[in-house]
Structure prediction request, 536 residues.
Amino acid sequence: MAYNGNQNLSSVRDTFEFTREQIVEYAKCARDPLYFIEKYIKIVSVDRGLVPFEMWGFQQDIVKQVEQNRFVICKMPRQVGKTTTVAAILLHYVLFNENYSVAILANKLSQAREILGRIQLAFEHLPKWLQQGVVEWNKGYVELANGSKILASATSSSAIRGTSQNLVYLDEFAFVPNHLQQTFFQSVYPTISSGKTAKVVITSTPKGMDMFYKMWVDSEEGRNDYVRVDVHWSQVPGRDDEWKAETIRNTSEEQFREEFECEFLGSAATLISGTKLKTIPYKTPIKSNEHLKVYYEPAQGRSYTIVADTSRGIDKDYCAFVVFDVTEVPYKVVAKYRNNQISTLIYPNFIHQLARLYNSAYVLVESNDVGKQVADILYHDFEYESMFFTANDPKYGQHISAGFKGNAVLGVKTSKAVKRIGCSNFKTLVESDKFEVNDFDLLQEMFRFSAKGESYEAEEGNDDLVMCCVLFAWLIQQPYVKELTNTDLRMILHAESESAIEESLLPFGIIDDGMDVHVEQPIVATARNDDSWISN
Prediction:
């Protein structure tokens, strides 16, 4: 008999008597996935049609790593057979394990179904004695007589919510939209952690700085349990320097670096140079919840500043603020808050709470649109006095003012001039190593913060955290703020550049102009030592 008339498939009612040789061979295939794949799996070659799967060395390594580890992440060039390799692995798991559930997730449903199609093709060309009877067989789902199942779906936060999976395969994960990557893992990881043997396999070609990048770097630095498989284009037979030159001629150097050298590249037009961005480290928060991440606790004797950006809380844009340590240079991001569902009436509560904990930090609120309401609530309702005011001057434009004087108002409006100066200062801070980023979400936004017309903005997604930093970079160069923080970035950079010049001219002697820069000690304040402040 056959399943739905397909003579290549057995139905659940079919019976088969094994020979002694077949029993021995079946047991060998069950024990050794490499043996099974190389002897029995067939794939479609562009040039030769249906052929046995003759695996390359790195493909064999993927099979071994998936067999031996729960979490495997593969950074691989395009067109190296990564999807075919994993498809063969998945077929082995569902054939030789009872009640084994596999989820294939890709950027698009059509891609996930195409992977399932490769598994189905290989299944149909197995000897009947190696097959299982088929219960259900369609483009998006397969169920076998041994209870094993394969589901093909697009990657989304609801793709496999509420199900239990033995293995989740994420194909080309870097190409899943950025806003879906994190929400997907928040919803899918419970389906993995419910078992002690469940696996996650991720394969992708890089595409800028996203969650795939973070998972790869975290693996390199021992911050997660993923085992890495790093494949270079030269490991594929037939790909040599002549092939490389031809590929670059027909595409571009940048495209080759990303798709074949597997470099994590950002836009060529980012505010911070791509070369610098790739070297910036980030930290694991010492405390965190859904919206707040803390990298340094409040400390006695240190000075802090908070810059807050405000949205209307309608899912897309975030209310976000960043806490900076301004005691000395380099300035540090010590905490950040970001929430796209909070009311602007509640948002000031969180700013006020963190500001008090961080030694009564001075607060600058971006006052465009609803930001003015947030600043007013902080100053008038909470009676929080450590607020920055701005005033407009015909000669100097918008600048920080010492309280309500003349035309001074709470907060700062992000005018073209403020943004231009802030972007320039922020670029200088980062590229001269005078700023510790620490937060991955901020770093990710910096990777997408690119030139558009005469300004900069996010290529995709949000730039709320970057804009907090841009406003901070504008703020610290204001004369009034230099007095508060006892730091002057321009003077520090000037002193460093003079030192470099002196070193280069040392054989010729130094001229002492008698000038000496004196930096006073910061004001000492007291911070709380308990952990209750993280609860919200």
About this structure: Residues 20-231 form a domain with the Rossmann fold fold (CATH 3.40.50.300). The chain has 17 helices and 22 strands.
